[in-house]
Amino acid sequence: MRLKLISLVVSLLVGVSAAAGASVADSLLHELDGVIAQKEAFSKRRKDMITESRRNLAKATSDRDRYNIYRSLYSHYRSYMGDSARWVAARRLETARKMQDDSRILSAHLNLAESFSLAGDYYQALEILDSLPRSGMERYHRKYLYTVYGITYDRMAKSEGIQSNRLAYEKLEKAYLDSTLSLTSEEDGDYLYLKAAQLNSAGHPAEALQVIAQAASRPDFKESAAMLGQEALAHHALHETDAEIRCLARAAILDLSDGIRDYTALSDLALLLNQRGDSERAYNYIRCALEDARLCNAKSRTHEILELIPVIDAQYHESERDRIRTLWILFAIITLLAVTLAISLRVAWRRVRTIRDVSQRLNRTNRELEESNNRLRESNREKVRFITEVFDAHSGYISRMEVFRTRILALVSSSNYRGIKRIVESEASESSELKELYARFDTIFLRLYPEFLTEYNSLARDACKVAPDAASLTSELRVLALMKIGITRSSRIAELLHYTPQTVYNYKFAIRNSLNLSKEETDTYIATPLG
Q1: Which of 294, 166, 154 is nearest to 230 (CA)?
Q2: C-alpha to C-alpha distance for 48 and 54, rounded to whole angstroms
Q3: What SS3 class is residue 298?
Q4: Radius of gyration of the chain (CA)
Q5: Residue 245 pLDDT exceeds 50
């Protein structure tokens, strides 16, 4: 009933955690990466413990103290430095013999056999184990004996290439595991671990997980790399890869944090990650495991790892080739994008430059239009003034004619014919009208063509030049002005200015003489209309 309840709890926990399994595994792998980076610090901590035990050994005054210190040193060296562990086991055995204590001699022999087994000297280990007397052996000695036998045959099975031999070693390993468990009571701390290992070995992974869950529910439970290894085996058998990765990662973290060098979790994890496609991390993990195995001088572990390296190395280099191919493809894409961007920028720059040129031309055109508009507005104002002058001239003339008509009518009414005759024969009126005509013409002309006098002065002889800011024209310049606006016939000029044709001729002659030009240049100047 209790096992069924535990099974139900385990099933519920597995179902709830399945969704978050991948993220938890990733988190543990990142944590493991950090632990590997700090591996030297953990190793230093173990070295410090060894140094402390060596100091205590130097201070020891009795064989009993030395024996106990050798036991502590052996535990420190056991999975850290195989050669040193074997040396300590030999010194412990030597000390036990000096003490002539059979129990301690037996324990020291078991340490020595275990050290040979961990170093890969299996037959030397078996020779020691087989030579130990069984009679009078304490239960804990017998349990330790079976444990070392199990460790030895387990490692022999993993390193054996012949299948029949490997199966025989596996069978012996299971038998010694059963024997070890038979000597373990349910109250012992390692009972549930051994039970889980037995169930895994017998092919019952689900039951093994139930036992592990039962162990985790105990108040005195302490997580260990060994128990996590059994949990990983169970998940592997059940094809629960994410859970297996989590267990192996956590076990590897505990192993490395403890500063040991002889372990299996990290290399097993490397193989699993390699199968999952994480070849780079797998390569880093297997290198770390191989380095530690060599430093520990664990021959069997080194052999196991060396068998895995070609598989992981091949996958790693294949991944590297894939990564390089991907990088080349990305480089080609980036290059293409860069070329496209460069072309686009060049086209955009040309468009910007074209737009800038068009903008500059438009600005120039706008300025020219503005200037033209200003000139047009000024021209319009001049035209308004010209129209006003014309109206003023005609209006004044009409007014004067009205006054003249009124005076004539008044004189006619009074029959003052003499007065009429005097008015009609008077030249003052005509002279006054001509002066006003000339003044209005000069004003209008100079407003319309302000550069006329400046241009004339630039071509005239010094003696003939006029003031550039003159408000009126001379008679000769008035004739020249009419000629410059296209009225060239002398009769027409005489008619407009009330001159005689001879007078107009004389003025034309005077104009030609006033210019410092040849005849052809003079004709061209006169024929060129004003702007």
Answers
A1: 154
A2: 10
A3: coil
A4: 62
A5: yes
Extract the tokens encoding 260: 């040991």
How do residues 299-338 score in pLDDT, each as one tens digit? 777 877 887 777 777 666 666 676 677 778 888 889 889 8
The token pair that represents 341 in the structure block: 């961007």
Contact present, 504 and 494 (Cβ < 8 Å)? yes
What pTM, to 2 d.p., does this model score?
A: 0.59
Q: Which of 44-48, 386-390, 459-463, 487-491 has the lowest mean pLDDT?
A: 386-390
Determine the Cα–Cα distance for residues 95 and 442; give it in Å rounded to an integer: 144
The Cα 93–Cα 76 span in angstroms is 17
Instruction: Kindly write down the DSSP assignment for every residue of 46-85, as one continuous string.
Output: HHHHHHHHHHHHHH--SHHHHHHHHHHHHHHHTTT-HHHH
d(CA 210, CA 207): 5
In the block, residue with structure tokens 């230093």:
44
Q: What is the pLDDT of residues 101-138, one digit of tens each?
A: 999 999 999 999 999 998 889 999 999 999 999 887 89
The rounded distance, in Å, linking the Cα atoms of 436 and 472 is 12
The separation between the first and the last C-alpha atoms of the chain, rounded to the nearest angstrom, is 122
Model confidence pLDDT, tens digit, residues 382-423: 655 654 555 455 555 556 666 667 777 787 778 777 777 777
- CA of 93: how far to CAs of 110, 111, 450, in Å? 9, 9, 133
- Number of other CB atoms surrounding residue 366 within 10 Å: 11
